[in-house]
């Protein structure tokens, strides 16, 4: 399988498969919206209140700058991130792939646990049964003949379900919208650690490459499709941002009323306070949808980091995705709960992967026009990327601190 693409193979913008781009957008968005996303947003909203709106705004702007650069370079070059990394610095792509696959499988254990918790809240299923049933559902997607099309439709459908259900709870909880709007630009408190954590959780690790890899594997690539690629990269982040904002408003309506969330389970506590028993069931549906789409996204994207290294892997990629899900589920069932230490380590690695991977991408944009087919990269976009890379260095530094604390 070749990494590049010729001019004759590139489809003009009018022929770019819109359905494939929509699928890539939602894969990126739903990969970010997982159990950790829900828990983080709930905890930080309880901590900052309406000032969380400013943290969301800043993180979204940085996320857009990062994703626009990643999608543009991957899309125009027609090469996956690991292939670009090896072209810039021999061995860098293998390192990036190893970090992403390790982080992906550890987070997938947490995603399966999130599926189990979601079905427990929704249907009262035992957590081990819920985890197993959810894994079987994800595996079934990759065993059917047109797995890519099925995956796109599932993540789009469940993404819409999550947004609508969270909108319902946000309306029921009655958040102080005026205060939230004011503090979006004039916050009473600014917490940079919260902002960088949100950035790492949205575009860290494998997540930043999920949509871009899906896009080029669907056939959308090349300079002729730049406008579609750019629009899709922004829209993917805006979908994630919409979910973050709705979840923030849902929780804000609860905590603004003086409710103290349960420390052990803040997210379901917020939904139950907002909507009673119905609210708890809605939380279960949202949690399961978020977790199962993250299982799909983590598994698909992690294996996409391996396929270019071997033709055998390329031919058997769906079976490897199935194996990825099976291993994650088996570890979850064996442990019986989410392995907190491993999740902390994987989260720290996600923070480290972001500046390394983004640095390689920006080097290609600035210095390797040959990998972009002679495409002249816009200076304004490169400048935004460098600023975002500076932020990612801080995220990486906090990740190193987390690893050091874990080691000690």
From TrEMBL:
It holds the Pfam family Nramp. It is a multi-pass membrane protein. One of its GO terms (biological process) is iron ion transmembrane transport. The keyword Transport does not apply. InterPro entries: NRAMP_fam. GO terms for cellular component: plasma membrane. The keyword Transmembrane applies. It comes from the Bacteria. The chain crosses the membrane at residues 20-38, 44-66, 87-109, 121-142, 154-172, 192-212, 233-262, 282-307, 319-336, 342-365, 377-397. GO terms for molecular function: cadmium ion transmembrane transporter activity; manganese ion transmembrane transporter activity. PANTHER family: SOLUTE CARRIER PROTEIN FAMILY 11 MEMBER, TRANSPORTER PROTEIN. This is Divalent metal cation transporter.
């Amino acid at each position: 399988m070749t990494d590049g693409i010729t001019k004759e193979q590139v489809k003009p913008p009018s022929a770019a498969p819109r359905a494939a781009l929509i699928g890539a957008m939602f894969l990126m968005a739903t990969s970010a919206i997982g159990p950790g996303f829900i828990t983080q947003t709930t905890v930080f909203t309880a901590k900052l209140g309406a000032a969380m709106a400013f943290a969301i705004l800043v993180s979204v702007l940085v996320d857009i700058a990062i994703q626009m650069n990643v999608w543009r370079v991957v899309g125009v070059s027609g090469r996956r991130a690991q292939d670009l990394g090896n072209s810039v610095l021999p061995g860098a792509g293998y390192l990036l792939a190893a970090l992403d696959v390790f982080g992906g499988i550890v987070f997938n254990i947490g995603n399966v646990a999130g599926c189990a918790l979601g079905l427990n809240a929704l249907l009262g299923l035992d957590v081990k049964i819920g985890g197993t049933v959810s894994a079987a559902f994800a595996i079934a997607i990759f065993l059917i003949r047109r797995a890519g099309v099925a995956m796109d439709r599932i993540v789009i459908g469940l993404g819409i379900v999550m947004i609508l259900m969270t909108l319902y709870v946000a309306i029921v909880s009655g958040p102080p919208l005026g205060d939230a709007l004011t503090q979006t630009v004039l916050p009473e408190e600014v917490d940079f650690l919260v902002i960088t954590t949100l950035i790492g959780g949205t575009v860290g690790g494998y997540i930043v490459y999920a949509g871009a890899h899906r896009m080029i594997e669907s056939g959308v690539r090349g300079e002729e499709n730049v406008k579609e690629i750019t629009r899709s990269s922004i829209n993917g982040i805006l979908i994630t941002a919409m979910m973050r904002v709705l979840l923030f408003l849902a929780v804000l309506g609860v905590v603004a009323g003086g409710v103290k969330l349960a420390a052990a389970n803040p997210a379901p506590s917020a939904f139950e306070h907002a909507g009673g028993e119905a609210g708890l069931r809605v939380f279960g549906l949202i949690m399961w949808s978020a977790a199962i789409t993250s299982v799909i996204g983590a598994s698909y994207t992690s294996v996409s980091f391996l396929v270019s290294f071997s033709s055998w892997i390329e031919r058997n990629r769906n079976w490897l995705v199935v194996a990825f899900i099976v291993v994650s589920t088996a570890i979850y069932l064996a442990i019986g709960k989410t392995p907190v230490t491993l999740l902390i380590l994987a989260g720290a690695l996600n923070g480290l992967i972001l500046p390394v991977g983004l640095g390689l991408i920006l080097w290609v944009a600035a210095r390797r026009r040959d990998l972009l087919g002679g495409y002249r990269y816009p200076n304004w976009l490169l400048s935004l990327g460098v600023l975002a890379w500076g932020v990612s260095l801080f995220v990486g530094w906090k990740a190193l601190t987390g690893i050091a604390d874990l080691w000690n």
